Amino acid sequence: MGLLNIIRRMALREKLSIREIRRRTGLSRNTIAKYLNAGTIEPKFTTPDRPSKLDPFAEKLASWLKTEGGKSRKQRRSAKQLHADLVALGYTGSYNRVAAFAREWRIDRQREQQTTGRGTFVPLTFRPGEAFQFDWSEDHAILGGERTKLQVAHIKLSHSRAFLVRAYLLQTHEMLFDAHWHGFRVLGGVPGRGIYDNMKTAVDRVGRGKERRVNARFLAMANHYVFEPEFCNPASGWEKGQVEKNVQDARPRLWQPMPSFPDLAALNGWLEQRCLELWHEIPHGTLPGTVADVWAQEQAALMPLPPAFDGFVEQSKRVSPTCLISFERNRYSVPASFANRPVSLRVYPDRLVVAAEGQILCEHRRLIQRSHQLPPRTIYDWRHYLAVLQRKPGALRNGAPFTELPPAFRQLQDLMLRRPGGDREMVDILALVLQHDEQAVLCAVELALDAGVPTKAHVLNLLHRLVDGKTTGGPPIDTPQALALRREPRADVERYDGLRARVAGGRHAS
Fold first, then answer.
1. For residue 298, which of 47, 99, 160, 328 is within the disulfide window of CB 3.0 to 4.6 Å?
2. Given this model, what pLDDT does residue 472 score?
3. Is 480 exposed, middle or buried (0-12, 13-18, 19+ CB in 10 A)?
4. Distance CA 386, CA 393 (A)
5. DSSP state of 501
6. H or E element at residue 194
7. What is the DSSP string of 424-449?
8. What share of the chain is helix, strand, coil (3-state, %, to 5)?
9. Who's near 119: CB < 8 A, 6+ residues apart?
10. Using CA atoms, how far apart are residues 89 and 268, in angstroms rounded to an integer?
11. For the stretch 182-206, what's the b/e string if a residue is b when 16 or more beta carbons lie within 10 angstroms of its beta carbon?
12. DSSP per residue, 130-192
């Protein structure tokens, strides 16, 4: 480098001839002329290609290094082991050449990941009310004193960047539909387009390019809320980068430290309130003001919110002889008149509805048990077994559904089963809830117990008084002196003779 600088300075500044430069530097005329004619400012040296003993095995070694890169650190083969494996294949070179090849390969892979491997992206912009983005994440919270894994739904407006976070125990269709309803409710309307990844609850099959076979139930929800679903390319989360970033930002904002609430409903109430507060704290970034300021301007571009989509998932079930249906390892009771018959089970996020013949038969609170180590549970409604109980009153003593009777019914049952025929009378009293309001029957039973007359006749008398609006258990009445009895009646059986005919030979009135 220094000699080249001397040659250029002598020729260009001092205007010396090539002969004089040759005399002063000792270089040949051809070398001096070559550097001056090329106009180079730094010398370049060419390294001749020399064949290596590793060349025939280079492709094999590169494939091994790629495979080893996908393994855990403890399971990877060392460079010495790779060299030994190559020797077994016929390699006669040194270990140092293999180690140098491995170092160069790892450097190239690292450079690729830091440059072209990271991809190139185009910034996106959205008009007010144009689109929203949806995604799921997995986080944890303490519910009822127990650490619980949650499936968290994120929905975010693409223009104003207003968002809602809502937690569920499962990531199923009914949870997805419920998340959309609450999202649109909080965001104040429905945008024209929804951007999703290829989640199984929305896409049944991923075709070539943008071709998708959308789930029929998901499409019904999109048609109800009148928005167009759009799905990203596989493994292309950057196409909905706003909600992907929302998933990352939500963890320090909402889940650290881990929130603790008595149940899921309380957690979701806090999440909704916290999201609304964050709208006023987070600057929009590209537009002036906070997220809340831009969201207030976007409201006019959103479609008004229609009624909630009836987002249930329907399954066909057959009722067992014990009047039970099974769902998610648990069993739920059904009215006895539908035993051994098919019914339709409508699954909601928080409840189960049983329907048949165009009518709703019953409804249960949904029980979700995440741990398979817990035993299955059976949820009874004792009212469903009254029809069977009227034919088999003896089942009242040990029937599993009747262990959950209200305390007044249980107390009355303990008293009535001590005497003969008491089980039949108790069944008749329980059957009153089929024709009368259950609270009225329960009130009549409590009044009978307070009066110390736990009988069927007394309960019926009290129930009819309650139903007819008559006063039961009112205050005592003080009789006025004017109504006092002055002459006590005398018992006289001869007065019955007056009932006989007064004509001679008449017969008794009877």
1. 160
2. 53
3. exposed
4. 9
5. -
6. strand 193-196
7. HHHHHHHGGGGTS-HHHHHHHHHHHH
8. 45, 15, 35
9. 238
10. 62
11. bbbeebebbbeebbbbeeebbbeee
12. S-EEEEEEEEEEEETTEEEEEEEEEEEETTT--EEEEEES--SHHHHHHHHHHHHHHHTSB-S
Side chain identity at 104, as an amino acid letter? E
* Cα end-to-end distance, the chain, whole Å: 149
Helices (H), 198-263: 216-225, 241-250
Element (H, E) at 332: strand 330-333
Token pair of 316, please? 């066909």
What secondary structure does DSSP assign to 91-124, as a single string? --S-HHHHHHHHHHHHHHHHHHHHTGGG------
In the numeric block, the tokens 């270990």 are attached to: 95
Number of helical (H) and strand (E) elements in the chain, helices listed first:
16, 15
Q: CA 404 to CA 255: how far, in whole Å?
A: 39
Angle 264-281/291-298 helices, nearest 10 degrees?
100
Asked whether 136 and 247 are in contact (CB, 8 A), the reply is no
Evaluate whether 159 touches 95 at the Cβ level (below 8 Å).
no
pLDDT score of 121 more than 80: no
Largest Cα–Cα distance of the chain, in whole Å? 184
Kindly state the tokens that stand for 156.
């975010």
**pTM, entire model:** 0.68
Strand bridging mode 228-231 / 212-214: unpaired
Looking at residue 389, its amino acid is: L
Q: Are 202 and 180 in contact (CB under 8 A)?
A: no
Q: Would you say 205 and 212 are in contact if contact means Cβ atoms under 8 Å apart?
A: yes
Q: Which two tokens stand for residue 248?
A: 């990352």
pLDDT in tens, 397-445: 888 888 888 898 888 888 888 888 888 888 888 888 888 888 888 998 8
Around Cβ 432, how many Cβ atoms within 10 Å?
Answer: 20
Q: Could you give the CA distance from residue 190 to residue 202 in angstroms, rounded to a whole number? A: 18
Q: What CA–CA distance (Å, rounded) separates 454 from 415?
A: 7
Round to whole Å and give the CA distance between 422 and 414: 10
**Sequence-separated (6 or more) residues with CB below 8 Å from residue 202:** 176, 196, 214, 215, 218, 229, 231
Q: What CA–CA distance (Å, rounded) separates 259 from 487?
A: 82
Q: Are 299 and 319 in contact (CB under 8 A)?
A: no
Whole-angstrom distance, CA of residue 213 vs CA of residue 229: 12
Per residue in 433-452, pLDDT (tens digit) is 888 888 888 998 888 888 88
Tokens of 394: 């003896």
Show the DSSP H helices in 372-479 as ranges: 386-391, 407-416, 422-430, 438-451, 456-468
pLDDT digits (tens, 9 = 90+) for 91-119: 998 999 999 999 999 998 888 777 665 56
Do 221 and 175 meet the contact criterion of CB atoms below 8 Å apart? no
Tokens of 112: 């690729």
Helix axis angle for 264-281 and 173-187, nearest 10°, is 40
